[in-house]
Amino acid sequence: MGPYRLETIIGSGGMGTVYRGIDERTGDKAAIKILPSNMSHNEGLRERFQREIETLLQLKHPNIVRLFGFGEEDGELFYAMELVEGRSLAEVIVKTPIKHWRTVVKYSLSIAAGLRQAHDMGIVHRDIKPANVLITRDNKVKILDFGIARLFGATGVTMAGGIVGTADYMAPEQAFGEGVTPKADLYSLGALMYAMLARQPPFRGNTVTEILDKLRYNEPIPIDRLVEALPNDLSQLVTQLLEKNPEHRVPTARALCRRLEALLELPEDTDFDLNLADHSTRAPSAPGDDYQLKDSDEVAPTLDPQSRKLAEAPTMQLSGEEEPSDLKPKNKSSATEASATIVTQRGIQDEPKTRFTTVAEQRQRTSEEESRRVKSTAWINYIQIGGLLVALGVVVAVMLIAPQKPGAEQIYDSIETSANEGNLAEVSEQMDDFLERFPEDPRSEYVAQLKEELNLRRQENRYRLAAAIGRGNQGLHPVEQIYLDAMKTNEFDPIAARDKLQGLILAFGPAQTQQGDIARCLVLAERRLKQLNASLTSQSKQQTASIRERLEYAERIAADDPQKAERIYRGVIQLLQDEPWGLNLANDAQMRLNNLGSR
């Protein structure tokens, strides 16, 4: 293919086959990706292939696989990229599971850094998954295959009715045909973090339909339930990235990088081996897609059949596409020739059959064409520059007139006002904004407490809803199940409910020793126990006063109406025989009854 001699197949997928190749001019190694021959007449796929090259040409980042050049050989389109030695993240998860949460954060930070540059350039990857992340021998991270990314504002090149992505790691809005933004990549990265920690993606299923159904209607099991003793900030970050509503996720890859960097600054004594909880499920699978890494220059690693069978979520294929057949490597002896384009008309005999363009040549050609165009249309450019200056003036004027982004004082005043009025839910986003932008502000601790209080209220509402619809024990931790049972018992037996809550707190508490939903559930249990104790104490005081008054009345009428006095004494004894708080009153009534009989 062009100047490259193809040696072995590294991997294959819906967009083509990847070979290990050698540049016969220089001896440099490369990974060569080729569009399948049986799809070369499909203009939609050719356009997608062209889009892939255009996208890769714009990206230059240490965490993104580098493009060397592109070309065409006998009508077959191909491009050359760096050959990375190491393994895919899917193989790492399956064969050598990650032992430390800090490693997960470091890998995630590298991926987020690569996505940050792509997002800043208006490029969304759309298929972040373990098979598309490469871990080099020196433990560096490389993102692979921006081939299904699409430039903002560009015409879509997916075929009618088709979606691009991998179901296990796909954002809900992408899966269901809604607008895709950079936050779709952040969801996929959250799912990837989930898989690195729990060794399984957020949702599993035997079919794409089953996975998509769970993606639409279910919430993933909280990561701190599957993996013991994770830092609370890490489990909360994963949960936020997996929010179904994009507006509730981390706003940008840049903000995500800051959050991940903050996690790496946690004290070293928080390091530990990752231990899956007893109810964790099967591990994720090894890759079966596109570009697999080389363990050495000589031998291409292959996955065992079981690992391939468990690979990862089904890859969503375009409507009308077929899986590519394996291609045989070709040895070409003809000389190479640079060309200005990779798209040719097949069957024209006087066209060169071999074309290859390096990235440098393409950039130089683009620069020369741009220079000629500028010289021939200089007067148009002057008009455009004038228009831009006018537009810039308008923008500056609007910026001066428009209100500035609210500062710490303004945001805090809004939060405090809503807190005093009991409307914390209305300022949830303002609290997140304050904590992210002003973490050093001395009031941030109070804002964090308000945010946690809001989380407690929301969790309490979820419990009430679960109990109301009769699904209280489905998918809940035992601590949450006991809490719900106590709340139901409280409706007819407050004392029994109090005893259950006391036992729950003694067995699993205090709340400070737990994390996530379990910690919040124990906080709610402690609050409810305090309320029940206060209520029961108040009730017992009122009943004691009322019964004491009744005993005194019986004492006054005992001489004139001993039968009525006897009934009152016996009623009090029967009423209080099983009440610990009424033991003294019951003994008093019994003594008076005995005295009445001796008269």
Shape, per Cα inertia axes: elongated
The low-confidence parts are 151-164, 277-352
| Structure classification | alpha+beta
What is the strand content?
A: 5-15%
The share of residues in helices is 40-55%
CATH superfamily of the largest domain: Transferase(Phosphotransferase) domain 1
Number of helices: 20
Total count of domains: 5
For this entry, what is the oligomeric state of its chains?
single chain
The CATH class designation of the largest domain is Mainly Alpha
Q: Order of strands side by side in the largest beta sheet?
A: 1-2-3-5-4-13
**Whole-Å distance between the termini?**
120 Å
Mean pLDDT: 77
The count of DSSP E runs of length 2 or more, i.e. the number of strands, is 13
- Determine Rg (CA atoms, Å): 34 Å
Report the major sheet: 6 strands, antiparallel
Task: Tell me the CATH architecture of the largest domain.
Answer: Orthogonal Bundle
The name of the CATH topology of the largest domain is Transferase(Phosphotransferase), domain 1
